[in-house]
From TrEMBL:
Keyword Metal-binding assigned: yes
Alphabetic keyword roster: Metal-binding
Pfam families: DinB (PF05163)
InterPro entries xref list: DinB, DinB/YfiT-like
Similarity field: Belongs to the DinB family.
Any one GO MF annotation of this record: metal ion binding
Name used for this protein in its record: Damage-inducible protein DinB
Record: residues binding a divalent metal cation: H141
Length: 162
């Protein structure tokens, strides 16, 4: 089998494009949170998985704090202790964090994306990979939220409408 080497790396997606992609996912995840009835958001689970509210708290405790660590080159441990006990509190925190994410993300020079950062003192990967982890983790947990909504007989938002 013949292989071809690429001598020049071409950029598929720029820094601004990646942020807009992520923000699209955040908008969709917010709409998933909105679809949940209050009680089920905090209590419903399938096959021993966590309630969706716990997954949302995880997302909130990773994205902005993770970017803060990247920007400040700190390796503070992951902290999942968020005291958010209503749907309104979760949504308010989600909305509060979005401009923080935008601000912190924009403080990272694109030239630093290939540099390693030890996220939360545990995950020593290139910054771009840490950011992709934030996005991938959100998609993963949002998919669990979709399963929960369907199990509750609630139509989730279309995944392509970000």
């Amino acid at each position: 089998m013949e292989t071809t080497q690429i001598s020049k790396q071409e950029t598929f997606m720029g820094k601004e494009d990646l942020l807009n992609h992520w923000l699209g996912h955040r908008n969709l995840t917010r709409r998933v949170i909105e679809k949940f009835p209050e009680k089920e958001l905090f209590e419903f689970s399938v096959e021993g998985m966590r309630p969706f509210s716990d997954m949302v708290k995880e997302l909130l405790s990773i994205a902005s704090p993770g970017l803060h660590g990247i920007v400040n080159r700190s390796e503070e441990a992951y902290n999942h202790d968020l005291n958010l006990n209503t749907k309104a509190e979760l949504l308010a925190k989600w909305d509060e964090e979005t401009p923080v994410i935008i601000d912190l993300y924009n403080k990272i020079p694109e030239k630093d994306f290939p540099k390693n950062h030890n996220l939360f003192g545990q995950y020593n990967f290139p910054i771009k990979d840490n950011i992709l982890y934030f996005i991938d983790n959100e998609i993963h947990h949002r998919a669990q939220g979709y399963v929960y909504l369907r199990a509750l007989g609630i139509e989730p938002p279309f995944f392509w409408e970000r």
